[in-house]
Predict the structure.
Amino acid sequence: MPGIWIFAERKDLALELLTIARGLASQTGVKVTAIVSDQGDQGDIYIAGGADEVVLLSPLAEDMSLDAWIPVIAAETKGADPDMFLVAATARGKDFAARLAARLDTGLCSNCIALHREEDGTIVMERLAYGGTAVQQLSCSTRPVMATIPPRTFSPAPADHGRSGEIRKLPPPPPTPVRVVARKTKERSSQDITEAKAVICVGRGMEKQADIDIARQLADLVGGAVGCTRPISEELHWLPDDLCIGLSGVQVKPDLYIGLGVSGQIQHVTGIRGARVICAVNKDENAPIFQAADLGIVGDLYDVTPKLIEELLKATSR
Amino acid sequence: MPNIVACFKWVIDEAYIRKGASGTLDFSAVDYKISDYDRNAIEEAARLKGLHGGSVTVLTVGASEAAKGLKDALSRGADQAFFAGDPSFSQLESSQTAAILGEIIHSRIPYDLIICGEGSSDQYAQQVGPRLAENLRIPCISYVQKLTIGEGGRIIAERRVEEGIEVVEASLPVVVTVLPEINTPRIPGVKDTLMASKKPVVTIKKEDLPAVGAARLQTLGMTATRMDRNGEIFAATPEGIVRFVEALQKKGVIS
Ligand SMILES: Cc1cc2nc3c(=O)[nH]c(=O)nc-3n(C[C@H](O)[C@H](O)[C@H](O)COP(=O)(O)OP(=O)(O)OC[C@H]3O[C@@H](n4cnc5c(N)ncnc54)[C@H](O)[C@@H]3O)c2cc1C
Ligand SMILES: Nc1ncnc2c1ncn2[C@@H]1O[C@H](COP(=O)(O)O)[C@@H](O)[C@H]1O
């Protein structure tokens, strides 16, 4: 039975996948099935967003993780044999997709950033390779064609309340060998850096957490937000993970990006390619960031940043 | 005492890839390395061995050149290495890699815990670990930032998810994929390197393995991403900073 299936753990991400699914389905006339967790919203919103069928996953027991659905959804997928299966690339989503792909013995394009259908029906998917050095184009020779889509790569599907569709529920799956014993919610940043007009990025050149304050001052001055490299959020835990920019973090597209003590490895630069003007302050004149930048200052960020703030204040008050 | 297997990939160091004419990739001057996060995988295996005893086996699949990575891997606290090498193994797709790794582990290496990196530096498909677990029909715990082996072969893992941390528990055997923050990989010393040369290496030929299935994904194209900007550099002098700010104004990014 041809069709496009989507699975996302959150509503906003499901709507992003529906944008892609609806686009492809309108070219081929197949049905769109959305598999989503039952959060009491009855599924109408997914139908308005473009699904023809909504499969609601009953809430899981406290000690169960999303993994528990894998055998159930694998069985459903095998039965229906869809053409395509899209999954939102959250951590659990990526793990889910890889394991589902193994069970279905099919290919999976991870972190797919663009896709289209050729005239002959081939789905061409794009992803980054070699840390972001290259864009790889892939096709898949087995069914279903699977891809994980990073959050915010596509805009959410608009609601069309005139649409109709079917809604069904899946009963909770049996317990799995992996038990959740605790959940800890972590601090999230209050600002959404993917929408910021200016981003000041903190790199490892920053000596201690308190020093991030100078990046904040600069950000406030230019009306922007503070972001960081992966070591700052992940190894040092100085800033929340959702501020990490790059291959494994978010893509930003501000008018102005200023990296302070950022070396500019490809995995980071990949996340700032959409910035209009890229600037860097780094004491090493050979730092790769200068090749990716429009404007750079070779110097110690502790010396340069305060002076830069002062000069910007003068310039903007003129 | 757990038998731990750490899977590592010998990859092209992306920092050496140059951009050829018209968007092609120039691999002529590349160097190779152990995939970044696989150093964390090996380190975690060695760390757990230090606490609980047992053994550490490092395992890689790749082209013949990947043999060069064995000594590096062995100098990081492993006891022995398994290497499946063949010229046709240089461009494997995740499903094929996971199939070969699964076959080797299943038939040749006693295991309680298998550790993979979160993702490889070249492909970053983030698939081989979870696929391997499915092939071996054992649980997978991905994106782990803290790992503990408790009483009676229970494993407790903190996995990072969008909302925070999910602490999970399972009985061994399991596959775990690790984040770089889980530990700081050691820098092997001269003695480690010397000792590594004396450790056993089991080499497996393609003929010794069941036929590898066809790739599920086909690469249609690979083009270099463009990111060179004209990089105007200013000195960290008062004049340099004034000119820098003027340049920002000229570009219209500050008012
Ligand atoms: C698969 C994979 C995925 C990854 N994903 C990401 C990602 O999404 N995002 C990301 O950021 N990274 C990512 N990385 C890591 C990436 O490769 C780099 O290690 C990281 O970006 C480096 O961060 P950094 O620039 O802060 O630190 P470093 O590379 O340590 O650079 C610090 C810089 O600060 C400069 N410096 C030091 N002191 C001063 C001073 N006083 N004044 C001025 N300059 C100073 C130094 O010259 C140096 O250039 C990934 C890596 C891999 C393998
Ligand atoms: N050729 C390989 N040999 C051994 N382990 C591998 C190989 N490819 C991938 N892996 C393991 O699987 C992880 C994820 O790889 P990937 O799915 O390519 O992102 C890596 O960090 C390694 O631990």
Q: What stands out?
A: The mean pLDDT of chain A is 95. The pocket of adenosine monophosphate (ligand 2) is lined by residues B 7-9, 35, 37-38, 41, 59-62, 94, 97, 101, 116-117, 119-120, 123-129 (CB under 6 Å). Chain A touches chain B through 87 residues (CB under 8 Å). The CA atoms of residues 16 and 152 of chain A lie 7 Å apart.
